[in-house]
Amino acid sequence: MQITSEALERAIEELAKLPGTGRKSARRIAIYLLKQSDERVATLADSLLQLKKSVSRCSVCGTITDSDPCSICTNFKRKNGIVCVVEEFQDVYIIEKTNEFRGRYHVLGGTISPLDNIGPDNLRIRELLQRIADSEEEITEVILALNPDAEGEATAYYINKLLQNYDVKITRIAYGIPMGTELEFIDEVTLSRAFASRTVF
Amino acid sequence: MQITSEALERAIEELAKLPGTGRKSARRIAIYLLKQSDERVATLADSLLQLKKSVSRCSVCGTITDSDPCSICTNFKRKNGIVCVVEEFQDVYIIEKTNEFRGRYHVLGGTISPLDNIGPDNLRIRELLQRIADSEEEITEVILALNPDAEGEATAYYINKLLQNYDVKITRIAYGIPMGTELEFIDEVTLSRAFASRTVF
């Protein structure tokens, strides 16, 4: 096999490193880009470079942002005394999509996971406590919105224990049967949880 | 929904324009890139820019190349008098992958398609004739490797007719039953073609 364009091969190789992109889709994307205008490709390349250049972490909540503090932390309309604690900044995006929660966030940056050598000090837990203690805005409720796996549960319990010393209401998002499914297809753990967490109708 | 990073949104938007990439995968890629080193992202962006900058068409065969004429056209080992005519430069890559064909290529840049306003003059057919007439290397055989659809067939017939005036052998790649399938699943047109093109065992 003889290659006529090293530049094409290099682009394919780089694109194939992206998640969810095999060599075939990388090739398709590279050939698509070859057919686009110089400007279009420059715009794409620039948007990727800007991504690394302008994006940093919000010093208050820990989510990614172009300006510190982030637009959620500086939005006075979101000053309702409620802070939602999540594992990763992606979770902020997922929750924002629901348009349900109108308070602030606090991104831990992971969960306690002894196997991966991640302890409480590696997460933004100290910052959370400081925020509750020092914040100008009085924080009245902390919602724990961690993933319902072993690490998420452990982290939630740990934070819950620490927060006992503070005058805040601590809540968790509800774990139970997802909407639109049938009980038949739900695992026992979820079903047990749904029973334990049943609410008054 | 409140967005905390315009740069992230812009990158997602640009990535979502790529073929086979919806907003979800674009988001996944952008977040992946955020976690990579500045260098890695710069390498990717540069490879895309270089793609547009260094890649051009080979003036002899019409395939894409970093240097004109391309490495296949200048490879003296491939001087065997055989030229394989294909529709698009992607086909060169596909045929090269088989390591079967060791001659040169000629990329038409499409097929005759009156509905799309593409006539013989829009393709590199004149260049093919000129190549057969003028080339220092004597061309003894032209293999037509066009797609077996209406446009490919029409184009093959058209070129075949033109080449009657030249002293070259004209052949076509075999169209028939693909390897590894069962006759049961083959359409009638392919099966008829396989019968018509049967070879001595």
Number of strands of chain A: 6
CATH topology of the largest domain in chain A: Dna Topoisomerase Vi A Subunit, Chain: A, domain 2
Tell me which oligomeric state these chains represent. Answer: homodimer
Q: What letter string, H or E per element, gives the SSE order of chain A?
A: HHHEEEHEHEHEH
**Strand neighbour order, sheet with most strands of chain A:** 4-3-5-6
Top CATH class of the largest domain in chain A: Alpha Beta
In percent, how much strand structure appears in the residues of chain A? 5-15%
Largest sheet of chain A: 4 strands, parallel
Identify the most extensive interface between protein chains. A-B, 60 and 60 residues
Task: Tell me the overall shape of chain A.
Answer: globular
Low-confidence stretches of chain A: none
Work out the count of structural domains of chain A. 2
